[in-house]
Write a structure and sequence with these properties.
mainly alpha; 3-stranded antiparallel β-sheet; 80% helix; 2% strand; disordered N terminus
Length: 410
Amino acid sequence: MKKHSGRHLTKYRGIAFCLIAIIALGVMPASASTESKLNDAKSQVDDLKEQQEEAEEKVDDLTDESDDLQTKVDSYNSKIESLAAEIDDAQAQIDETTAEHERVENQIEETKAELAEAKEVATTQLSNMKERIQFIYENGAQSYLAIFFESKSFADFLNRMEYVNAINNYDRDRLMEYEDTIDQIAKLQSTLEEDEEQLAQQEEDLEQQKASYESKQSEMDELLTETKTELASSKENLEKAQQSQEDIEEQLAEMKKKQKKLEEQAAKEEAARLAEIKEQEEETSTGTKISASSSDEELLSVIIYCEARGESYKSKLAVASVVVNRVASSRFPNSVKGVIYQSGQFSPVGSGIFAYYLANEKNDGYSDCVKAAKEILEGGSQFKYLYFRTVESAKKAGISGTVIDNMIFY
């Protein structure tokens, strides 16, 4: 188990003192049976207190883990947002490449159509040119001299020459048109090949983009699954720890109720012994001085500190008087140590708080406890009390006495 921080120790010590305050209802004699049951209840309360501290520590640890996990989730969310943006970009690239792919496909179809049309025109042109060449070959070509002699006049000669030139120009134009068509076919063929190469590259790019998109989508799905799993596990563990803590608190509450009933029963038994107490008081006189060592003085100072810490100096004197008066009484042990350690009498002794303060440093209020102990041990007692308890528990038990601060002495 890890060490508690100062804050945790303070919190747990506060819880312990609150529980002990419930237990510490002053000094009260009780029957052996009631005392045994009360001691058992105290022991169970102590065990539950320890379990409660462990449960609280576990909840604190899990809360810290939950905070750490939340930081991790925030990091996941940031990464998920980044992946989502990358996925959107990848989708945009795919859409853009797909659109360009379709444009190129349409362009290829148009180029193919133009190429087919050009080839058809070239075929027609070539066929016409072949027929023209065949005609010239079969009929022969008239020379300019033959035309001159066959002409009836110079004007007729010029007309014949113009006709021949027109035919030659026509043939030349057809040949140029055919050559242009061939050039167009070559260009269209080249364009078609480039477009087909571009189309193939686009298809390759498109496959890579789709693979990248699917990879990023898969990564995001895994990240989301991992995040959900860790969150669910952390939530489940925290809920179990909190439920365990609540169960312990419920058990502790039940034990407190049981302990209060036992304390009320003990108080009633004590009330029935008031007559005996009065008889004991007859034996007690004020200003009793007893033989005490420095060790007795320390024990008395610490029990005053445990029972009347935070109360007035008068309360401290009254608590000290109870101890010294018991030492002087024939019905109690005849030493300070014996009175303080008598079973079932002082709650801080039974709970371990007395031993703790006996071995550890006390705060500034301890000096008044030492002063009160010395004053009473030297015969300065002004009180004939043999018992005390909290005002609240005394009212429940129907016990009356002298009220000093938050306690009743009798």
